[in-house]
Amino acid sequence: MTVEPQTSLPDTGSTPKAGARGRALQRQLTEIVWFVVTIAFTFLGLLAITFFIGRVVPIDPVLSVVGDRATPAVYEAARTAMGLDRPLPIQFISYVGDVLTGNFGKSVSTGRPVIEDLSRVFPATLEMATLGILIGVALGVPMGVVAASRQGSWVDQVIRVIGLLGYSVPAFWLGLVGLAIFYARLRWVGGPGRIDIYFDGLVPPVTGVLLIDSLISGDIDIFWNAVNHLILPAAVLGFFSLAYIARMTRSFMLDQLNQEYVTTARVKGVPERLVVWRHAFNPIRVPLITVIGLSYAGLLEGSVMIETIFSWPGIGNYLTVALLNADMNAVLGATLVIGAVFICINKLSDVLYRVLDPRAR
């Protein structure tokens, strides 16, 4: 009796699924690698721009260190010690290596390493700009939606006037008027500075954000004092972001409200509130991410005037003092940080695109 060998049938159920999972994993790995490479090349371009800006501006970094009365021998010795006697490509490679290791040089203005100064001043700007963008989003998006849904009404006209004021009113004028009315006259808010001077130095720095650090240490009085000082400059910044966000939201909503699917929803008797906020608003969330992200980045790097008026110890004030003192290490370090913030926010916007819009996945 002969037994015929059994022939095994191929598993036609699991192989296609395994192949699909493999292709999906390969596609995800490719996207991650491409994402990292894009960030690396963008950051390298940012380093190149900041480096060559530091070499073409009419400011001699050697003179800012030794002074204009130094002898030629002292000048040349300092120039050699700073590596400025080497060819530009070698200087650029050395600059990239220093930045990657966190070495931005020493600030002439403060006498401390620039990286320490930036870690001290950037959280103050982050704190003010974050509250400003929250105000801008919380008020600007609903204002834009309401203006679009009531196009041509007096509500629409008022919101458009507010947006026009946000584009035309100078920041320094609005800041000074705010100080004169709400601080000097009404005493509703705190004055210039991040905190009252008798509270200065009482909160141990943990994150650098004073509101968070005061809560961590349990100093409620310092927390409310910091809020009292923060609310006016953040509101001024929030007003400018509000104008931009409201205008763009109104424009996006008007385009969606004229689409056929919105008309169909209205014909079917869908309540107007659902038509506006569910049917018309959902498609504009993705472009709004770009608007909000750019506005947030603009607040982080464009708060120089507000920080100067309110004596806010942020990166804008630090950059202004560095420029006045010809402190190129501090200028380039602050510029690099601001550029890195733009890169991170843009990439975060790309990630949020994929979360909110399945078509972009």
From TrEMBL:
Residues 122-349 form the ABC transmembrane type-1 domain. Pfam families: BPD_transp_1, BPD_transp_1_N. Residues 1-15 have a biased composition (Polar residues). Residues 1-20 are annotated as: Disordered. It comes from Devosia limi DSM 17137. This is Peptide ABC transporter permease. Keywords: Cell membrane, Membrane, Transmembrane, Transmembrane helix, Transport. InterPro entries: BPD_transp_1_N, MetI-like, MetI-like_sf. It is found in: Cell membrane. GO terms for molecular function: dipeptide transmembrane transporter activity. Belongs to the binding-protein-dependent transport system permease family.
